[in-house]
């Protein structure tokens, strides 16, 4: 509880939140515009001791405005030790401009004296303060207080303080409401859906529905609709739907600038459902055993979606999903700083997929600085038919199952950079699975997948950590480290790969040996350069007639044997081998055409004899 009285005294229960707006007018009544670079400082200090500050908060001005919102959190108002009787402090509000010049807006002056900030005991006990008089908040409080008649200290600015009171519906404004205004109980048993819907409906532009971060748990039995709204915030709510398996979250439709912040969602389905909207922010929320966390409905468009610093534990479906249509893609999604974890005993890939992020037909996606563990299905991160510019950077992705840790279908211009991949499960799952459903007809004009600066930690039996199948144009793999890999490339199908500056700890590097997958096994138009490769290289006869073509191996360091035949237009030059290792370059096999080996060396063994096949 808090109250702001006509004399500008503030009464607040210790541990509660406070929210009000400050305006200032010049001497002639013209509203003052706060400018970028200014800040408004709210300060609480001990009586008659301006230097003994107990609370100070600065509110920076990002854009020009005539109103500054002052917000004190429950932690801010927990001043000092727990109290059993009211304690009176003084407070002030000051404007500090970009030149560091300070003007007092509200504070002590000769006519009205000090402005008091009275801290009440938690629980609402009314006892005498350690002063001569009993502190009793006034009964009658207006919901808007005009202080233009007060004389400011500097004579350069006066203030108008708009108190937002929690005294009933008539005292509310479109800025700040709580669900209790509309009858919410918050005991986890009573159905609070109708009350919360009424609270949302009451909000105008710029409104906040604040659940005050108390210990209450609110029960929903159906979706809360946020429709045709702007600048709406849902903050500090805890929603417990443990006995409800239906869709019982929030749906955002035809709205702009909607924020969910510091909320907790326990179980329930489709927690935040997006239709046509823009500028959606989900910050510092926690999702526990829910179904879908944040989902873009099929066929609609949501642009500029920011999902940051959230926690998701043991979700039963995807955490984030963006489903669009090719002629109406969503754009500009940023997903950063989140933690997603699932129980590692529940990694059955045939069960309902539980992905960190899945996208269809969307562009300009940034996924960075997340921790992802235990996803299953068709990729912890999944792109399908996506357009331009996806960045997956600086994430830790661990112990997933299914098609791969990152799965890319018919998508282009994807950067996978500076991530750490971990496989401690013993499962043979590709770290990156990139392919097309139809090699000849479904490929976009350019692929340009870049895999750079990553660390891939396998489990020694893991094969094909990069499953790059039927790609049509350039894929670049550079400056990565691969540890504890079984077979790096195992009878797959790749085109136009540049593999350079990598360190590969593996049993085998290339294993194109005419095995069971030989009907699909070939590499075309690829370059392997400046790598350090610990595993054996084998490219040999393929009874199905698929031959590796147009390969260039140069300036690599091989720490194992290399055996190559059955290739066309292969150049092998300026490579170095560890002592005792050999290069076997068979020029006699029928499928070998135009193979060249020259200027290769063995450490302490001299130059390897040059070799060349016929045409």
How is this structure best summarized?
This protein has 615 residues and is mainly β.
Radius of gyration: 32 Å
Q: Quick one: biggest sheet?
A: 19 strands, mixed
Shape: elongated
- Structural class label: mainly beta
Strand composition percent = over 45%
**What is the helix content?**
under 10%
Instruction: Give the rounded overall mean pLDDT.
Output: 80
**Secondary structure tally, helices:** 1
Q: State the low-pLDDT regions, or none.
A: 124-174, 437-445, 514-519
Q: What's the total number of strands? A: 62
Terminal-residue CA separation: 89 Å
Can you offer a commentary on this structure?
With 615 residues, the protein is mainly β. The protein has a 19-stranded mixed β-sheet that branches. The protein has 1 helix and 62 strands. The termini are far apart. The longest helix is centred in the N-terminal third of the chain and has 10 residues, at 193-202.
Topology record:
Elements: E1 2-4, E2 10-13, E3 18-25, E4 39-45, E5 53-60, E6 68-72, E7 87-96, E8 102-106, E9 115-120, E10 158-163, E11 176-177, E12 187-191, H1 193-202, E13 208-210, E14 217-219, E15 224-227, E16 230-235, E17 238-240, E18 250-253, E19 255-261, E20 264-266, E21 272-274, E22 277-283, E23 286-288, E24 294-296, E25 302-308, E26 311-313, E27 320-323, E28 330-336, E29 339-341, E30 357-360, E31 362-368, E32 371-373, E33 376-377, E34 381-384, E35 390-393, E36 396-398, E37 401-402, E38 406-409, E39 414-417, E40 420-422, E41 432-435, E42 449-452, E43 455-457, E44 466-468, E45 475-478, E46 481-490, E47 493-495, E48 497-500, E49 503-512, E50 522-529, E51 532-533, E52 536-539, E53 548-554, E54 557-558, E55 562-564, E56 567-573, E57 576-577, E58 583-585, E59 593-598, E60 601-602, E61 606-607, E62 611-612
Parallel strand pairs: 2-9, 11-13, 12-14, 13-16, 15-18, 16-19, 17-20, 18-21, 19-22, 20-23, 21-24, 22-25, 23-26, 24-27, 25-28, 26-29, 27-30, 28-31, 29-32, 30-34, 31-35, 32-36, 33-37, 34-38, 35-39, 36-40, 38-41, 39-42, 40-43, 41-44, 42-45, 43-46, 45-48, 46-49, 47-50, 48-50, 49-51, 49-52, 50-53, 51-54, ...
Antiparallel strand pairs: 1-2, 3-6, 3-10, 4-5, 4-7, 7-8, 7-9, 59-62, 60-61
